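Quick log. Single chain, no ligands specified.
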Amino acid sequence: MDLLEFIAAEATGDLFPWAAQVRAAERFGLTLGRVEETALTHGLMPARYQRNRQTISVERQLHLFRSRAVIIGSGGLGGYLVEELARLGVGNLVVVDPDIFEEHNLNRQILSSPALLGRSKSAVAAERVAEINPAVTITPLQVAFSRENGREILTRADVVLDGLDSITTRLELVDLCRELSIPLVHGAIGGWYGQIASQLPGDDISPSLFGSWSEPRGIETRLGNPSFTPAVVASLQVAEACKILLGEGESLRNRMIFVNLLDMEFDEVLLEPAPAAVGE
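-> predicted structure:
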């Protein structure tokens, strides 16, 4: 019996159970990801995604599995980005963060806990993904993103998600994604408030991101962040990334959503497309 025959025999209707996926990996000496891809390629939905299938077809689930998302930052926003992308079934994740968990992270960063204080955020992200969806391949990088290392980090990325807290680094990320024609989903938070926008190839959202704000870090340095704001904004970012990867729906291209959870208001602002540089 080969792998495909095993998968077909173990399937229940059009679903392939997790226990059978584990047995297949052990029996044939394969990764869980390889087994998952084989099942999806032959029209079977891994049972863990069965609640996706009324929204995301088997073919689109396969596309997500074959996609590569790079998450820059694994703290307040980034932890939720990693969690949700892994559960969604995006098959290749790169998580970039130079920091370790500190006590002030415990109020809002989903990957943090008292037992993990002092641990690398990117390493903990990798352990979390291995726990919740071992079929996903994750590459943790305990480095600070910069223009100097950015091209290597973003290699083969299908989408990039911004979980940063430095305006300077954010603008470098926006600029590099524009140069490399990689879709970017921006998110920022502060107190009760947040903002989300997408930059698709050919766009430049940098003039619209922070207005007249001149400090190197965002407004969260003044307002802090409660537990719920990063969860809301990161979820909207993941929805944007999913649409971009699947080519479905209407993205936030040339518009930004401002989130005001204190008054429960969501405002849309149209962004003026930046003029193309000479030669573009």
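Residues 67-270 form a domain with the Rossmann fold fold (CATH 3.40.50.720).
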